[in-house]
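ARCHIVE CARD
SHELF: 3
SLOT: left
DATA:
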Amino acid sequence: MRRYMNADLSRIYSRKPRIIILLIFFILCAVNCIFSASAATSMASLASDCLNTVGLVCTIFGVIEIVYVYGDDFKAKTIQVAIGTGIKRQKIVHAKLLEYMICVFTDIVIATVITVVCAIITKGMTGNLYVSDVIVFVFIEWFKVVAALATSMFLMYIGEGIIATLLAYLLLAGGVITSVIQLLAPLAGLSELHLHTYTLSSQVSTLQARLELGYLNWVSLLIILLHMMFGFALASILFKNKELEF
């Protein structure tokens, strides 16, 4: 499986359209930071404003990597080729998720480093910039994107395409499902159950708030992991029984 992943990652990282798109967003992060510097009163406020923008871009990174990690394979039917060489289907599901995790993590780290460096250069001070806050930011954004994909990935193994997964990913990562539940729950007389607090985006926000205070919320982490495990298990089962077109 390691050879399969190495070959896949090499192909993904060498895709010129992907490189160009990522460069555009890296440049946008830098430009946004530079223009935000004039209005910022301190290094901390500048870093906060810039990282909020990077947080939005991270969701876009998730979309980009879904296209290049999964979309290209379904389009070119390279997954069928991998199965033909003897790689088990469950290992392919596992390998593709790991590739996605690696690619998204790399994107987020680069965007964050660019933003922090621009903030330091434009503001010229680092006293109020805490490394721990940056680490928490990178982890949360990465975890949110990966969790949203892992929860919705089973959809792409049903129809051998990424459109349904992309839509579900955006709804989960963008917190749309949480907002919809908040709006509909009172109409259904379920507001007292606080169902919106159990959604993926709500639990990620809770986890982030607790980490910023210096401790881990195990309940939120467990709920998020259950979301991910459900999606991964369902994807493995569906793909195992899927009749593929060669």
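SLOT: right
DATA:
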Amino acid sequence: MKIDINVNGYLPVSITLCPIEAKIAPTETETANAACMDRTENLTANSAEITSTAFHGGQFAFSFLGDTYTAKNETDRFVKILGLLADLAPDKLPALSEHLLGSTRRTIATRPSLVYLKKQQYGRAHKIAPGWYVDTNMDTNRKHWLIKKISNFMGLEFGRDIVLF
């Protein structure tokens, strides 16, 4: 059975469900699951065609420069992506921090206490590189928006170089 899903306006996805009957022996079930999971799904993000050939077990997966990663939740995925970007171009972090500076908080700062400029008790900072922290106290839409913005700042294309599954 094939279904189309559109979650909160993000990433329209076509998924093929593979039914498995209870009477199939475990080794046959594993074979059937593997065959189902290896099928290619066509995804669309920002008009870029994306291909996923792996089932990620409900985890928050993403692709970074062709390598696929998983995360335990949206915040973990956000922190991992920014960590990979920081590893790719650590010299751009000071300029990126200034580029993302808001009136009440910094998205990226050199100390956790600098993430929130006015009310530090609201800050949730996670380390992305030695001496660099990222604010994670935001909703999923803002995290996705920031990933796109930071990707562009770093010279990468969201939907090609960085893909969210």
